[in-house]
Amino acid sequence: MTINKKVWLALLAVPLLQATPSYAKPAPLTPVTTVYVDDRPLELTAQPLLLDGTTLVPMRQLFEAQGAVLSWNGSSKTVTATKNDTTLTYRIGEVTSTLNGKTLSLNVPGQIVEGNTMIPLRFVSEALGSTVKWDALTRTIRIASTDDFFTTVLSGVNLRSKPDSSETSPSLRLIPTGEKVHVIREVNALWLEVRTKNNLTGYISAKPKYSDYTSTSLAERQGDELIAYGQKFLGTPYEFGAATRQTSTFDCSSFVGEVFRHTLSVDLPRVSYDQAKDGQEVGLNELRKGDLLFFSARGLEIGHVAIYAGNNKLLHTFSKERGVHFDTFDGKWKKRFVTARRVF
Hints:
The protein is α+β, with helices and mostly antiparallel strands. It is 19% helix and 34% strand.
């Protein structure tokens, strides 16, 4: 019986594949884009490593960002970190460490890579009393210290048991204006998971009126949310002086007002001239989704407003023929451009 040459090659490949040794190698980059400690990005001297599913980061920045005092013995490659009444001792390369005299096990040992001392992020953070959360959508790690609360509530907001404002998510308590909370993670464009100083964990609205929390990832999500709601009205008729709080017709500023009020609970002035006074000015090279662009129109210095939709696109209305529509932010619009404002 003759066996096809390709079949022989396939059969020979099987034992070779089975004989391949199984061991973990550190990858130079992990899927992690940013590590936050207490809502602030951690500046790392080396890229994170991934080893058997564990993220390792440079030792000194991780300890010091969480308020630990570091002592390093170069001859024994042993680090001692002290924070309040917590003392952690660890020798690089070993799979055990000592926390206040108690032996703890590590899933993956620390190691020195290209001159950088790399240690397991989750193990160290949790040993220091912090919580660690992975956000798969933004590929970020958020470390929440038990001691620091940076986000201030700007308007009384319900702390809910779930990221939902319906009756299925009861309020745990009302967080009053001025109280500080710790943001554990961004759930989505509209919700934050937080912890209060009395160690109560729940969810609050991420809308800008409720807290001073900001981040690039949240702004991107909220910009997407604005455009997604606004484009539901594509083709809706244009009417100059259209009434507010209805969605059957729009003029340029009532459309913008509806999108921001419904999506982010941001109440803008009625007319574009006054809307251009809200928020902060941004340059054309700084634009992000959700920024407002103002133009001259009808002989007025500012007589038209549009929402920047990303990728050099505008979402607006001014034409009875087209109603709400997308436009390219091209030369004809740039000639009439006056200013851009950011309101969230």
